[in-house]
Each structure stands twice: as structure tokens, then as C-alpha cells.
Design brief:
The complex is a heterodimer of chains A (326) and B (719).
Chain A: E1 9-12, E2 21-27, E3 32-37, E4 40-46, H1 52-60, E5 68-75, E6 82-86, H2 91-95, E7 97-100, H3 112-122, H4 130-140, H5 156-167, E8 174-178, H6 186-197, E9 204-208, H7 212-218, E10 221-226, E11 229-234, E12 244-245, H8 250-256, E13 264-266, E14 272-274, H9 277-287, H10 296-309, H11 315-318
Parallel strand pairs in A: 4-9, 4-10, 7-8, 8-9
Antiparallel strand pairs in A: 1-6, 2-3, 2-5, 5-6, 10-11, 12-14, 13-14
Chain B: H1 3-23, H2 25-54, H3 62-87, H4 90-95, H5 99-103, H6 109-124, H7 126-140, H8 146-173, H9 177-200, H10 211-219, E1 221-223, H11 224-250, H12 254-277, E2 282-284, H13 295-303, E3 308-313, H14 317-330, E4 337-341, E5 353-354, E6 357-358, E7 360-366, E8 369-375, H15 381-394, E9 399-404, H16 420-428, E10 433-437, E11 448-454, H17 462-473, E12 477-481, H18 490-496, E13 498-500, E14 504-506, H19 508-513, E15 520-523, E16 539-542, E17 547-549, E18 564-570, E19 576-578, E20 605-613, E21 625-631, H20 647-658, H21 665-671, H22 683-718
Parallel strand pairs in B: 3-4, 9-10, 9-11, 11-12, 12-21
Antiparallel strand pairs in B: 1-2, 3-7, 5-6, 7-8, 13-17, 14-19, 15-16, 18-20, 20-21
Helix pairs in contact in B: 2-3, 2-7, 2-22, 3-6, 3-7, 3-8, 3-9, 6-8, 6-11, 7-8, 8-9, 8-10, 8-11, 10-14, 11-12, 14-15
The chains are: A alpha/beta (326), B alpha/beta (719).
Chain lengths: 326, 719
Amino acid sequence: MNIPLTNTSQTKNTDALLDQASLTIRHNKLKTDIKLKQERRVALLGLNGAGKSTFIRNLIGESNNLDFDLLYQTNESFENNHFINLKPNDQNFKQLMGYQADTMLSMGQLSAYEYLNLCAGFKQVSANDYNKSIKQVIDDWGLEKLLHQPLQSLSKGNMQKVAIAQAFINNPQFLFFDEPCQSLDPIEQERFNKNILELANFSLCLFSTHNVNHALSIADDILLIHQSEIAYFYQDKLQNHYLLFSFENREKISNLLNLSSFEYEFLENGLYKIVSSDVIDEFVKENYASFEFCLPEKEALMPLFRLLASSEWQPLDIAIDRVTKP
Amino acid sequence: MNSLSDNKNHQAIDKILLKQFWRKPSIQLVIIFSLLAIGIFTSLSYSNFLHLQAQNIDKLSVFNEILKPLSGMVLLLSLITGIVTASQLLPYFFSKGQQSILQQMSLNKLQFFVLITKLNLKFILIPFFYFLMISLFIAYNSDLDLFLLLTTYGFLLLGILLYTLPILTISLNSKNVISSMLISFFAIILMVSLDQVFMRYEHFNFLTVFNKLFLSAREGSASLQEIAHLIIWLLFAIYIMFNAIENVRNGKNQSAIKSLFIGLVVVAIILKTITMIIPDHNISTSIISNNQLPKYYQNQLKNISSSVEITAVVDREESKDEIIKAISRLKIFKQDISVKFSNRQAFTDISKERNGQVEEFISIKVGNKQQAIGYPFANSAHISIVRLIDHIESKSDQWITFIQGHDEVSVFSKSGRSFSKFYAQLKSLGFPVVEQNLRTQKFISNNTKLVVIADSKQEWLDDEVEVLIQYLNDGGNLLIMRETMDKIPEVLESYLGVSAQEGTLIDEKGFSSGTPHPAILIVNQFNQHSINQGIDSLLAFPWSIGLNIVDSTAEKNGKQALWKSETILTSHQLVWNEIESSKKASSNKNEFIFDPLEEKRKSHSLLIALERNLASANTTNTHATQRVLVIGDTSFISDTAINNYANLQLGINMVNWLLSYQPHSAVEQLGNQYQDNYIRISAMTHFMLNWFFTLIIPLSLLMFFLYRGIKQRNWETKT
């Protein structure tokens, strides 16, 4: 479905099945929409320097340097179907958003409790929910022991925990985490996974990570970022081994995989996929010695990472491309 | 979002950030530094004021000596505090990677603007409140112009706000603390410097931001145009800051510079339009006459119909500031006064050579009449300028005629005995001067308002005396400058009733005090006569003679009114008239010995003023009051002595008085005294101004911060 990408507007949506919280990303050059829906956990994967943080900063409106149009949609209230379209810069969107940046360091002599209060103040939490909201994140994230310590005396992992916790203040509908688990111990990683999985059913959560296992274990969808572009979008993860390509790239794929011909089928989003997983398996075996991971999705992702890392493929080679649809 | 939750949120942010700010050593240091600087400055100004107060100096004002400079310093310290505090907000958040909590901020632009401005102002205004405390304490112990003090507070607050907004804007665009501080610092320097430049160039005057207004407001006047300009600049500063807030939320840094430049162009157009629409009207920021103009000059200025153009040829920037301030004070009463600064080449005819160097001067044009006055001024700038304006406006062809033909002193020659420097001064003040020989031109024209006889060394012919007496009978003014052995007709002496004593006045006291010769008489006691007005140092009269008042024969003619005589200058009691040595052409300085038989040691009259009212007398002339001055010395105003002490001022004052140019002198005299010319001295005043504000408060605060710091460190160690 094409959603008009206009400025903030209120539309009476007659589609009763529409999600209460969604994000539509339209790639301006490729005229392609990607829709992230409510109750979804979206993992953002990419190589080092792929632009994951930049991508998130664009999603939340902190930066505006990528060629995307973004449209958030949310239900005005849960009792009716009156949807509001929001842009990342809209003040209303900020009220519905929680964000943890990977750069968050301790702020001087503030205690963790003061810090959470400060965040709640900026988020304009209503007077009735103010204390409740802060207490909720303290409980959810096990911050009791840290509350009255100065932030600068916290370990990196504990600071990371506080930074993640502040994003949950005021029950945001849209959650963004940049490398949330990078300094967390296994217990805290598990707590993060648990809290993400138990998110309110009207939330949309997007997090970046380098840990493919982690992404695949808790994410519903996967966005692969390369050179600040969306290189790949796995919706509902991978069920089979396959590679996607555009029609124009079929010869390139054929040469790369060293095949004279191969079977493929057309997907609705303008892509083709290689039907036989043997082709990929063969390719992988010839090119790479071994695999550390056992999950089938992983086996599909790793060759992609390697291809991207080898710089032989550019994002556009495998990106969704409606313009070139045959 | 209801207002209750808004309040709770604001309070939470305010409370936490305030706490955070108070813990910052940089903020603690800058506040202590500000308070110390204000305290020390106050203490020094106070001591200096007491010193001046003890000397009974004229024109002493607590506001001018202490509070005016202090207010400028407070503005500066507020900005320094602002630069430090602003750098601790957004740039600090950025440096700690905490900008993400701002990204989640639900505050709208106005709420965020109010939040950060309010938070910063709580610290930025600390120097102001300290100034408030000090000034109120001083106001309690003096007789300050409270309205002027109040308007100074108002403009100071406006200035602090005006400069704070750009500082905050810069901090919103800075990613780290140091760059925020450095850029803010240079931006403020740039703004102030540009303001100074714009102030000096007439065509760019409309672009001035604040300095000009602040300077003139503290002097007692504020231009409506400049107030309107200030409001526009404030709105522009708010607009730019709103833009910056938008950028913080949206990351659109590139549009900031563009909107700044477009905004500046729009503001410049609006300012120019305002300059054309709003009349250049000045309002008074002072209720009483302190820092204002005496009533006489106010009325004179209001009554001038022509526009006044002032061109100043001065070198130093401070001189330009002084003139600009003076003009702004005059503009309260006359709007169409313009000022521009020029170079000497454009005024070669007015420039005066002095010791090979061209002097500074101010040329004033009222309608089609133009005159110049030397700079620096003898009086305060606005009084000097208004006097000249008044002079130009009120005088009409007042010729001054120097009599020649008896070896009198010439105004045109360049010898040491001549009056060429005095002539240059008279010319610059707008008096047309001529020399006339009564033997060749046997009448004195009607437009001659003053005749000067300076040291006649040859006998007068009867018909010359006749012409002069006729001139006096007709009500003409006369200045007689006498010397030992000069030849003033006896008829004239008896007509006026003033005769010369025999002998040269000898002042050994002056000689022992450092004069090069005992025959140089020093006068340092002055009565309240307007001729003595503005003479604030000594007068030196070389080889002078004493004068006596005798019966006048003028009245005996039957028609004339009585002369009212008054002695203006006298010597001190130890001066005697040396008769023997004065007969010699050149006397050795050790030859003077007081001879009690022939000579008199007493207070000798040196300058006598005669005045009579001819309005009731049966005379054909149009002079209402006739004035004559007789002075027992000529050389005091000669080229060699005119620059000694206040001799020049006396010469000018004598001419002004003779031409009835200063009927307002009494008013002006009052104008020289400020009501706040004292501070009530007490142990409490000393303690408060020397110790309490200077050391006790700043050090107490320092101790408090140290205590808090130690407590904080202990807490951190424990946790």
C-alpha cells in the first residue's frame, strides 16, 4: 500500500487492519517503500562503518542526510481508527519515541535517579504518570542499586543499562537502540532480550547490532545497511536459503556464482530470488572454508556480509528496484 | 499535556540542571571571579571618590564616578558568565553524547527557549543582582538620581538579554564546550566592535545594536529610534535562536548560516525604514538635572529653528565617544543635530597651528552660520557644544575692534607680545575681529560691540578721546588692558572711575612656589562672578598693576546712569606694588625690596567690572546694558602667556561677559553641581564597600563551594 508521504496530517483510514504503529521508509532514488509494523522487532545489521548509527539518527530526526522519506503512522487513540501521520521532526513523534544512542556517556555528578528524572522532564511525562513511569523503568531494568550513585562512577555496562532504561520512560511507541548490548554482560543481554520481547503490543522497536545471532534470535525483521543505504530487507526472517537480485543483475549473479544458468522466481517487491539453495551452498563452500554458525538464516546472511565486505557488490546491485522492474 | 505536568516537568529539569550547574567548577569560578571583580572595582572607585570628595571637586557625581563604569563592567562580566554557563548546557550534552535525550524531548520550541534562557539567566544575572545590591546600598548613602538608576538597570537587563541570546544560539550549534566558549567570545567581541564602528559612521549609525544606546541612556537620554532598533535586534536574536533550536531537533545545521545572513539583510532594511519613519527623538532617562542640561540651554536649543550640523576633527576614539554622548544628550531638546567625523584637510581654514601641530576641533554649523571650537573642551562636552551653538545662534555681527595707533598690542602680528593666539580663539568662537586706528578713521561703527584698548604706549589725541567717549556715551562696551607706564587718557580714567596704581605688583609667595619671576602675579582665589566661571586652576599675570576705583565723571555729564563697579580679581594680601624697579626696563628678579613708605602690601584689585543700565537713560543707542572691564595686565593674554594656566579661559570669559553672552551663568553654575556629589561616610559604608562586597561575600561563596566539593567527592568515593 502506498501511503502519501506528506507532512504531518491526519487521515481517516478506513483500513481496519492497519497497524497502530508503523514506519514507512521510502527510498527517494529507488521509489521503494519499506514498511516496519507494530509489534515488530527490527534488527539493523551492517558492516563496520556501514552507516547504521547514521541511519538511526535519520529515523529519529536528529540528522537529515540520507535520501529517504520517513513516515510514522500511529493511532490517535486506541478506541478509534483515526490515524496520524508523523514526520521524524514532528513534536508529536518525539513524544512517542524512545532512543538510546551508542555514544551516551556519564554526565558529571548527576546520579542515575537525577538522570532519569531529567529524561522524564524532557519527555514531558504527565504529572500523574511521572513517578510511576520512572519507577517502572527502575524495576524493569534492575537499577535500584545504581540509583544514587553518580553516573561518572558507573561502569560502562551499568551506564549502558541506564541509557537503555531512559528510552523506555513514558512507554514510547517507537523505540530505537544503537548497539544496545555492546557493553552488557550476558545477564543484562538476556534482560534486554526479555524486555524487548515483552514490549507492549503497540510498539515498534528497531535496534542495531553486530551480533548476527542476537539479531536473528529476537528480531522479526532484518534490515541490512551498507554505505548508509538499505541493502537488504528480510521480512519475517529467512525461511529458505536464497539470494535476491534485480532482473538486470542476473548475469552478474550468474558470473559470480560461476553458473551458466540457475532457477529463480519473481517476488512481489520487484526482486527475483534464486530458488535452489544448493547454488548458494555450493558458492559458499567454494569461497569460504567454514561456518561458525548453524542457523540456516545465518548461513544466508554471512555470504551477503562477505560479498558486501569484498566490495564486489554495491547496494544497488541487490537493492529493491522498482524502476528496473521488467 | 496539561499545565500541571508542564510545570512538574519544567521544575524537574530546572532543579536537576541547576544542581548540576552549581556543581560545575567552571561556573563556580566564573561567579566568584565576577563578584570579586565587581567588589574590587567598587572598592577602588569608592576610595577614589572619597579622595575627590575630600578635594571638593566640581561636577563630582557618585553615579558618574562609581555606578556608570560599574554598570558597563557588570554587562561584561554577565557576558563572560553567560559564555561559561551556556557552554555547560547543550555543548556539554553533545560532548557526553547525550543529545539523544534532547531528541526525545517533547518540549516545543517556545518551551525549550524559555527553559534554557531562564536557566542560563539565573547565573548570568548574578553579577547584575550583585550590582543591584551595591547600587542600592550606595543609593541609601547618597542622593542618587533614582530614575536614572532605574533606567540604567532596565537597559542593562536589556543588554544582558540581547547579548545572551546570541551566546545561547552559538551554544546550541556547538558540539563541544571549548568551541562554544571560543566562538561565543569572538562573536561578542565582533558584535561590540562592529557597534563601535557603526557608531562612528553616520551612514551606518542605524545598524548600531546596543552600545550607543547604553552609553547615552546612562548619560540621561535615550533615542526612540535606537530603542526601536534594540527591539528589532532582540526579535532577530530570538528568531535566530528559535532557528537554532529547530536545528538541534532536526539536525539542519547548514541552513543556520543562510538564515542568519538573510535575517541580517531583512533586519538592516527594517532598521533603515524605522530610521526614516520614527522621528529621531530622544527621551530623558533622568528625572532630575543630573547629567542633563541647564534649563537655559534646554530652552535655547528648543528655540533654534535651523538644523545643527557638527563636524568633529578629533584623533582618539575616546574623544569621538565623548562627542557622540554629548550630542545624544543635546538631542533630547533638539532632534535635528547631526554629527560627523572628518579629517583636517577638509577644514584647513579652521585648523589652528600650535607648536607646529594641528589641533583638534569641533566645527558647528547652525543654519548658514558656522564656527569652530578647540578640543578638548574646557567644560564638559555637552555644555561646551551647546554654548557654542547658543553663541552662534544668538550673536549677530558682533564686531570686536582692537584700537591701534598708540603702539597697542596687535592681534594680527606674530610677535611674542601680540594676541594672535587669542585672536584665533576669538575667531573660532565666531567673533569677527578688526583693528582700527582712530586717527585715520574717526568714528566707531554701530555694529562694533566691543572696543579693546590693549597697552597704549603713546599719548592719545583729543579727537581720538572724543570718539571713544562718544562711543561710551552711546552705550558701547569697552575692555581696557593696562600695563605699567601705559598711556591711557586721564579723561577716560575719570569717566570710568578706575585708575591705575603706580608700580608693578610683586608676588614673592608665587615666586617661592615656583613661578620664574616675582613679578608674575598668581591669582587662585575666585569669586562667584560669571567671568570666573570654568576657571579651575590658577591665573598668571606678568608685570601687572593694581587698579583703584575712584569717582566717575560719567554721571556728571548729567545724562548717564551710574556705573555699578565690582572687583572681580584681587591679589592676595602679601603682594606689593614695586615702584622703584618698575621704572627700569629690565629688572633683576632679586632687586625687588618692599618699601613700606612708598609701596603698599595688600590685596590689590586686578580686574574691575563696570556695568550700567541704559534702558532708562535718555540715550539713542540700543544697548540695554553697558559693560566695561579694566584689567591691570595685558601680557597675560599675549602669545607667550596665553597658555599659562587658565589665562585663555579668563580672556574668553571677559569677552563673553562684555558681550552679555552669558546671562544664564547662574543657571549653568548650578548645572555643574550634581546632587549625588557625596557619599555619606560612616563605619558601615567603609565596611560594606571595602570589605563586605569586596571580600566577605565572594570568599564566603568560595568556602561554600569548597565545602560542597569536598562533600561531593566523599560521596563519590563512598559510592
